[in-house]
Structures are given as C-alpha cells and as structure tokens.
Amino acid sequence: MLMGPPGSGKGTQAGRIAERYALPHISTGDALRAAVKAGTPLGQEVGAIVASGGLVEDALMTGIVRERLAAADARAGCILDGFPRTAAQAAALDSIVDPAALIVVHLTADDEEIVRRLGARRVCDACTLTQSVSPHTDPDREACPYCGGNLSRRADDHPETVRRRLQTYAAQAAPLIAFYRERPTFAAIDGLQRPDRVTADVCRHVDRWRA
Ligand code: AP5
Known about the structure:
By secondary structure, the protein is an alpha/beta fold. It is built from 8 helices and 8 strands. The chain binds BIS(adenosine)-5'-pentaphosphate. BIS(adenosine)-5'-pentaphosphate binds near residues 6, 53, 55 and 165.
C-alpha cells in the first residue's frame, strides 16, 4: 500500500511495482476519475468533491475497495494507491485483508516540490501516460512525446485546488501515519529522490516482507 501527499509519486511508483511484481495497480483516484468521465452514478456523486480537492466519504470508498479486492485478479495481492487515506479507512482495510500481509510505504515530499510537480503534470488523453512538461515550453501546447496525443491538466491540478488538497492531506496524515507507524512492515521512503531510486527503495522494502 502506497500512501503520501498529492504528487509524492504514488501513481508513478505503483505503476512500476505493479509491473515488477505482476500485480494489479488499484488506484482509488483513477477509479473515481474514470467514473466521473463515464458519467456513472458514482461519478455524478463524487465529481464535485474530487474536482475541489476534498475527500470522498469513507464508507463509499471502503465499499468500492472491498468490491475491487474481491476480484479474482487481486487474490494474490495488489498495489493499493490512494487508499486508505484516513484512519477510518485504514481500520476498514484491516477487516478486508490480513493486516499482517499488508506492506505499507509512506512516500514523503515537501509542499514546495509538490506544487512544482503538479504544476508540470499532464496526462495524455490518448495513451493515458502521466508525465511532467518542461517549464521552458508552453505546457498547454505540448503534444505527448510518446504518441502525439493531447496533453491535459488534471481538473484538480490547478494551483488553488492543489493547495486545498495539501490541506486535506495534512488534516488526515498524522492519524493515518500513527495507525501504521509501529508496524514492522511500515517504511517511510524519500519521494524527493530520482524516480529509479524511489523504486529501488520501495522494492527493497517489499522484498523484505513479501511472503
Ligand atoms: P489521487 O488520484 O489518489 O490523487 P493524490 O493522492 O492527490 O495523488 P496524485 O495522483 O496527485 O499524485 P501521486 O502521488 O500519485 O503522484 P504522481 O505519481 O502522479 O486522488 C484524487 C482525488 O480522489 C482525491 O483528492 C480525493 O478527492 C479522491 N480520493 C481518492 N482516493 C480517495 C480515498 N481513499 N478517500 C477519499 N477520497 C479519495 O506524480 C506527480 C508528478 O510528479 C507527475 O508529473 C510525475 O511524473 C512526477 N514525479 C513522480 N515521481 C517523481 C520523482 N521522484 N521526481 C520527480 N518527479 C516525479
């Protein structure tokens, strides 16, 4: 399970380690954005909350994750990205999976770097790859370097909303970290390192505890 502030690199690292361990990457943020884009009842319910940088209600999120973890492809394990986000979600997760089997990684990053990263983050509409655009080019005119598709800014990556997300995170982080900190399978990893170094640290921790 990967936790950490917005922009700390959870999605980037989750994608890499999911590939390495051949496990599904389960991102609650991606699931909510997909529901919003498809206009499902869930999407209609959560759209304004996600766009404003607030948190979707614990019971709703827990229900979504409980259902996803029951799927056949998650039986051998998975990479959880963005859940749990509150101590209440963490307690609920302990009732869904064996707490002893949970490997927890807290990615750390400071607010200044987060604001910089999220200001530069774009997602390709075509190939869906997340990437950082250079501050020296016009970010809204850049095409995806991988497929030529259109690069979009996430609705919640506008500076005002990033600030709100950081406040939301700060309000929940201390009790969530306290929930896991004493577990032997908890590790805090410096998310300010180069992405490859972060991946190496995460994998070292996972390899140590993986059954
Ligand atoms: P979610 O999608 O989970 O957003 P988040 O937690 O705010 O995290 P991000 O996706 O913004 O960042 P990330 O840590 O994945 O960083 P990334 O790898 O992209 O959730 C969105 C919303 O959904 C929430 O605000 C909430 O409303 C709702 N929600 C979701 N889960 C919920 C839950 N459990 N309960 C309630 N509500 C929930 O990297 C960011 C950028 O930095 C990228 O451009 C990347 O290329 C770059 N980068 C990554 N690593 C590095 C590095 N090491 N060095 C330099 N650049 C890097």
